[in-house]
Design a protein that fits this description.
about 50% helix
Length: about 55
């Protein structure tokens, strides 16, 4: 019974570790700039279009 509980806890902690690592790399790996807390998880900000001044 004790070995079963240890295996269950090891599995739970392993999954929690993988979930934390996934969130960390999703937050930091997608962009070259530093991720701010306001960006949220999985949100990608669309770049603003560049306005070009045309001479007449």
């Amino acid at each position: 019974m004790t070995a079963d509980i240890i295996v269950i806890w090891a599995g739970i902690l392993g999954l929690a570790y993988l979930a934390g690592a996934g969130l960390y790399f999703e937050k930091t790996g997608g962009s070259s700039r530093r991720a701010s807390p306001s960006d949220g998880f999985g949100r990608h900000v669309r770049p603003l279009p560049v306005r070009i001044r045309r001479s007449r």
